[in-house]
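Risk register update: the risk of archive-format incompatibility is retired. Evidence:
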Amino acid sequence: MNTPSSNSKVIIVTGASQGIGAQTVEAFLALGHRVVATSRTIAPSTDANLVTVAGDIGDPATARRVIDAAIERFDRIDTLINNAGIFIAKPFTQYTADDYAAITRVNLNGFFHITQLAVEQMLRQRSGHVLSITTSLVDQANHNVPSVLASLTKGGLNAATKSLAIEYAAAGIRANAVSPGVIKSPMHAPETHAALSALHPMGRMGEMSEIVDAILYLDSAAFVTGEILHVDGGQSAGH
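Archived output:
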């Protein structure tokens, strides 16, 4: 167990049971911070510095339980990491009503409900940071990866990030986003790695640790707000 330091923060991470979310939780704990982690399948925690809340982030009741857990256990919220998200790549005309409902529930509703509650608490503290994970496909669409619903939702988060940054700058609340390219994770089978690597000018997929590094940087960068930080091997710049 890591002992919280004198400058320990309270961090909320959504989509925290695997992948980038799980590595983000581990990174903040290793730095001596306290974490509230949530996902549908997250396991109970025995770590005094880690509270887990199982639930559907698209449900307003889950958002309320996560915020309440942070306040009850740690008495504040310093950073919200909106990591939960789903990606469905299909030609636009093949998206179903169920696809639309699923992606907007997680990517938009999941952002809206918990961010609204977190910002209310941050306003009481006169400090805080909201960081969202988006995608570089918003900036550089690719006909090989048809993804209108990702652009609709994650593009909305990019815009909302800038709007939040300006609305709350004077209140001491920052808002930023990390915009990844394709990241090497269990969701991508090894036989797809060569094709996915070719989507990036640098010729490789990103590592989950590189996204976590970007998250940690933005959380520590006190003079940075409204930033969409692309961690994508040059994907957003062009091809």
